[in-house]
Structures are given as C-alpha cells and as structure tokens.
Design brief:
Chain lengths: ~260, ~130
Amino acid sequence: MRRSTSWLVAAAAVLVVAAELAPRAVRAQPDDFIVRWSGFWTVRFERAPSGAELLERLPDDVVLIDDAGGGELGAGEFGGLKLSEAALEAVRDYDYAEELLPENACRAPSVAFYMQAPFPMEIHAGRDLIVFRMEYFDLYRVIFMDGREHPPAAAPHTLSGHSVGRWEGDALVVDTTHIAPGTFMNNGFDHSENLHLTERFELSDDGTTLRATQVYEDPATFEGRAARYMAWTRRPGEYILPYDCDPNYGGELER
Amino acid sequence: MAPRRLLLILLLAAGLPGIAAAHHSFAVHYDGGRTVSVSGVVEEFRFRNPHGMITLRATAADGTATVWRVETNSPNVLKRRGWSEDSISAGDEVTIEGFPAQDGSNAMRVYRVEFADGRELIGQRPAAGIER
C-alpha cells in the first residue's frame, strides 16, 4: 500500500512539473518582445530583398513568387508555378467582369494574399496571443501562442485561417490551416481550402524592420511549394485607417 | 451534363472555389508600360475604397465630348500622399496622366492630376523609363 502511494505521489509530481514546463516552453521569448513587436508597420518597398538570411532559410525546392507589395502578376502569369489542370481550368473560366459586381467588389482575399498587399498593419503582441490588424479590407488575424493545436479538419475555414505560433530564438514561426479559398495571385488563380501556410517573421536588431517569408503548399492547385518574401518598417505614433469598402465601386467603373 | 456544370463539380471535389472573385488588379487591367494624358473637366470625384474614381469629360476641338473613367489607388494609400475627398471637385479643369486600360476603353489608372493653377496630386508613379 505504501509502495503504490509513493508511485501515485511520484506520478502526480511528474504531471505537475510537466504542466509547469509546457507553457514555459512556448513562452520562452522574453517579455520585451511585446514592446518590440507591437505597433504600426508599413510596407517596405525594397528593390532587392534586404532579408537575405531569411531567404536562405527557404527550402531549396521552393518557387519564390515575385509579386509582393503590389507588384502584381498579369493575366496568365503564375510566377513560375506549375498549376494543376483543375486550377488552370478555373483560371480559363474566370470572368474578370464579375469582380466588379456589387456582391464581389468588396470580397476580401485570404491571408495567402493580404499579408503582402501594400497596406500597413498593427501588431498587438501578447504572451498567449498575437493579433495582426490589417488595414486592407479591415481584416485581422489571431495567432495562438499557448501551445494549442489546429482544430479538426471539418472546423470552419476563414480568410485568416487558424494560426498557431511558436518562438524559434527571436523568430516567430506560424503555422496556418483552415484558410477559406481565395485569390492567390489576383488574376483568377485562387488557392483551395486545403492550403497550408507556414511563416517565419524576424525583427531586425534595431527593431525598425520586420521581415517575413510565407511558404505555401496546396497540391490541389499547384505542384511543390511556393513562397513570398515581404518586409515592413516600424512607424511609431501612426495607426491603420478604416477601409470601409464600397461595393458600388465596380458600377462606377463600368458606367 | 453542361461543361460549366461539370467543371464546377470537379472544382468542388478538388476543394477549389467555384467562380471566386479577385480584387481589381492593376496588372491585369492597365498597361504599366506607358502613360497617356487627357485634359478636361471633372464631372465627379468619388474617394472610397477599394478604389477612387474621377469622371472626366474631355472635349475635342470639333466639340466631340469623351468621358473618361480614371481609377485611383486605394484612398487609404492616397491619404498618406496628401489626397482627401476634397482634393478634386466637379468643375475642376485638370490634365490627368495615367496608365491606359488594356482593353482600349476610355479608362486609366491615375499617375498624376495637374490643376490649372499648377497644383499637382500624385497617385501611382510609373517605373523609370516607360513610354510617356
């Protein structure tokens, strides 16, 4: 009896220690990251990417799409990606006139497109949550930093998806699933609901520049993996503006 | 089965969206490789996202009038470049330089608006060395 009691005490102690260690493992970043990462960030237009180390971390097989920050691709251009037959068929069937209809004019893109759009954002960092408020289409995203996992596959898909993050040293690594289908290249090429997104965010030593890479996997629409690189500059004292999209805009263009 | 309906079924089976809508793309709709200039009188200026719109009436020497639709960048972007909803008014005489529509219609994306008094608003600057 005494022996079994000892085992119970030992097991309980292990559980307590494990419970204590688990949250600390995902909260390894020092608290000053809350100040260093939070604030207003505006898109940094770079003639050549300044984040060479970040790009070198990308897997060798990744196709880097060169359209971030407003450098859009034209009709029929896919940045070197090999599209699936179904995706090509969807592109061929895409009707540009439909995007001007009131029901479509304010249809927002997903996180696979809006992060690289030429609009600023605010980051509000906490220990268990990091929130990105995007000026573009008044969108926002939540990154869970508390060690949780993604929900079941059948859970709802949204434009921002479900994001879980962790710290790798000073870098923020984010894994996102459950992203609703949306524009991927703004030319009729859309990603599917099975897009898997991984991101790596790094802050410059002086805290003034934020850089990131997004890596996409979506076998339903293209072969292999693709990536985008993006960068932002901190602007203290500024705020994002309301977007308040007007669905009547398309009708004005077509009159 | 109609081909379009069959396509929709195949897309849904693959987890693809049906006929989704992209945002109105500059690269798809406008020629970023050259600009055109049109002078006229502003009929209307709307300054709302996702894009602003200037309606411009240009009158030729023979009296023929042409109406141009001039799309702007997002007003949020332009506010940070000094624009406001009061920057342009109906009746203003202006010369607008912009990127022409790919389809040849009387539409463009604004680069700059020059007023009769010399005032200028900048929308989207062209790349260096393009045809103007």
